[in-house]
Amino acid sequence: MEGTYMKNAESKIVVAVDESKESMHALSWCLSNLVSHNSRNTLVLLYVKPPPPVYTSFDAAGYVFSSDVISALEKYGSDLVNSVMTRAESVIRSYGTNINVEKITGSGEAKDVICSIVNKLGADTLVMGSHGYGFFKRALLGSVSDYCAKHVKCPVVIVKHTDDK
C-alpha cells in the first residue's frame, strides 16, 4: 500500500480520545500522517465514559447517597466528555484541515465499547495512544490498545508518546 493511499481515499478513521496527553498526541499524529488538507476522510472522535456505577440508597459503609450527589457525579462525567471533545477539536483546528469530524460518546468498558463501535462503523483505521504502562501494570490491568488490535476488523495504529516522563 502506498503511503498516500489513506490521504487520498475516502475513509473513516476513528481516533480514541480520553483525558490523557497520549490520546491528543495520537490525534495530532493522525492529522499529520493519515489526513491531508483536502481530505474526503471522516475523522471520528470516540470517547468512552466508564460504566455508570450502580447506586443504592446506602453504600457499603451505610451512608446515604442523595440525588444531589448522584446528579453531581453525572454532571462531572458530562463535563469531562465536553472537555475532552473541546481539546480534540482545538487540536484539529490547529491543523487547518477541513476534514469531516464526527463525535461519538460510548459508555462502558473502554476496550469492549471501542471494538464494538469501530466494527459497527466499518472503520478503515483505528488510531489510539499508548499510555506506556510497564510490563507489570499492563499484565495486571491489560492494555486497551492490545485488546483492540486483536478484536477489530481494521488496522490499528498505536501511537507512542515520546515525551520524557
TrEMBL record:
Would you say which domain of life the source belongs to? Answer: Eukaryota
**Residue ranges of the TM segments:** none
* InterPro entries on file: Rossmann-like_a/b/a_fold (IPR014729), Universal_stress_UspA (IPR006015), UspA (IPR006016)
Against Pfam families, the record matches this protein to:
Usp (PF00582)
Q: Which Gene3D superfamilies match?
A: HUPs
What region holds the UspA domain? 12-160
Q: What is the protein name for this chain?
A: UspA domain-containing protein
What is the organism field in this record? Lithocarpus litseifolius
